[in-house]
Amino acid sequence: xxxxxxxxxxxxxxxxxxxxxxxxxxxxxxxxxxxxxxxxxxxxxxxxxxxxxxxxxxxxxxxxxxxxxxxxxxxxxxxxxxxxxxxxxxxxxxxxxxxxxxxxxxxxxxxxxxxxxxxxxxxxxxxxxxxxxxxxxxxxxxxxxxxxxxxxxxxxxxxxxxxxxxxxxxxxxxxxxxxxxxxxxxxxxxxxxxxxxxxxxxxxxxxxxxxxxxxxxxxxxxxxxxxxxxxxxxxxxxxxxxxx
Length: 244
Description:
Layout: H1 3-11, H2 14-36, H3 38-41, E1 47-48, H4 49-78, H5 81-87, H6 91-128, E2 132-133, H7 137-162, H8 165-189, H9 192-200, H10 203-212, H11 220-240
Parallel strand pairs: 1-2
Helix pairs in contact: 1-6, 2-4, 2-6, 4-6, 4-7, 4-8, 6-7, 7-8, 7-10, 7-11, 8-9, 10-11
C-alpha cells in the first residue's frame, strides 16, 4: 500500500488543484460566515461553536463526496487505472491504498474546518459579540462529525461500487437529498410502513444515533444496506473487473 503516492497523484492534477483551492475558499468563507456573523443574529449576541460547525457542514456535505469519489473512481473513468495496475499489480493493495488516502485527505479537511470554526467562533464571540460558547463542543462530535463520517462512508461505498466518477457523484450527492425529501413526505403521510422504509435508508440519522449511543438494531440497517454491501460488491468488482 502506498497512500502517500495516491494522495500526491491525485493532488498533482490540474482539476484536483482547482477543486482543492475552491474547497478551501468555501471552508474559510463558511467558517467566517458561521463564526463572525453569528452574534448579529443571536438574541444574546454570542457565537456558538456548534452553530459555526453546522454552517460549515453545508459545503463539506458537497466537498467530501466530490473528493472521495474522484480519488476512488477517477482512474477508472479516465482509463489510467490500467497504468496503475501495470506498475502496482496487487489490485487489493491499490484499493486499500486509495481508501486510506481518501480518508486521510477528508480527515485533514474536516479537522481544518473545525479549527477554523473554533477560531471564527472565538473572534466573533469574544472580539465582536458578547461572548463565545464552546460548551456545545461535545454535541459537535455526536451530531455534525457523525453526519460527516456517514457522508464519507457512503461516498466511499458509491465510488467503490460504481467505479465511475459521474455515477458515483450522482449517487453520493443525490441519494441523501432524495432521502431527506422522502423523510418529510413520510412524516406527512403518517404511514408507519413508509416511515420505516425511509428510516432504513437514512444513514445520516442512523449515524447520529450510533454516535450518541441511542441506536438500536434498526439503526444498523442503513449501515449494512448503504455502506457494507455496496463496499463489499465494489471490492469484489475492483478485483475482477476487466481493464481496457
